[in-house]
Amino acid sequence: MAILLVIIITFFIGTCEGQLAFRFYAQTCPNAESIVLSVVQDAIARDPTMAAALLRLHFHDCFVEGCDGSILIDNGPASEKRAASHQGVKGFEEIEKAKAELESVCPGVVSCADIVALAARDAVALVNGPGYQVLTGRRDGRVSNLTLAAAMPDVNDSIQLLKAKFLEKGLTEKDLVVLSAAHTIGTTACFFMNKRLYNFFPNVDGVSSDPSINPTFLPGLEARCPKDGDVNVRLAMDSGSEQLFDINILQNIRNGFAVLASDARLNDDETTKSVIDSYLSFPSPSSVQAFEVDFADSIVKMGRIGVKTGFQGEIRSVCTSFN
After folding, report:
1. What's the predicted TM-score (pTM) here?
2. Mind telling me the catalytic residues?
3. Where does Ca(2+) 1 bind (predicted)?
4. Which is nearest to 129 in space by CA: 4, 43, 253, 38?
């Protein structure tokens, strides 16, 4: 079992009208967090891949317009959730289910944005990841447009571009590494592998695949995702450990067994590589614990990106629609 990590935040992010806080709903909806946890438990029991889906949903929400539930809105073809960069994102039904249960006991109190953050926390803990406290008090955004998702980190971005995109959100190279390590759970589609396997640039000695792929690993990837094959075929992002939150993915990245190109790029840069090495140089329970503490710190930090508080935004009645 993972160690319960209590992240002490010595300051709050917000505006003069309001702020985030631990157990924000302790008085107004005391069972809010347990209700979300129950929904997440049921979802993962039915479909173990839902843990990764809910974690990914939180990441995608925060990187566009801040952590404000904008990705949940379904207001037609131009809604943010339909952006190409959000392709394959799931978990919307689980968030809506939690919202409906919360509305039945605490109408108009708990935001959809907070449900997303809480669901991600619970999903991580339920697959052997670290437990951590979530700051709550976010309000839901009133903007949703697919064009706003154009700057999302992409699997084919260079390491320089990945670092720049994270820096723009106030996240460091270390945050980039530990948040990318969330790929320790879940799967990806062959759609995201085509460029890396068959059209990689720069081309080295006429070889069209990414040269950072371990030669013993490449045939298996090509067999799973053949050129011109079914782009919807799924493969684990952390070979051998896709349903368990651990640091195995960092070992895979360092040894050339990364599945996603963006994960492999972490081993190309001196700074991000040094972060990986810091967890692997002396494998021990303490190095695992250090990674868990750092992951919890980074995801709490990510959860504060662009939050709306106080009189900003709204508390939606239904997560898919503005009030």
Report:
1. 0.92
2. 60
3. 61, 64, 66, 68, 70, 80
4. 4
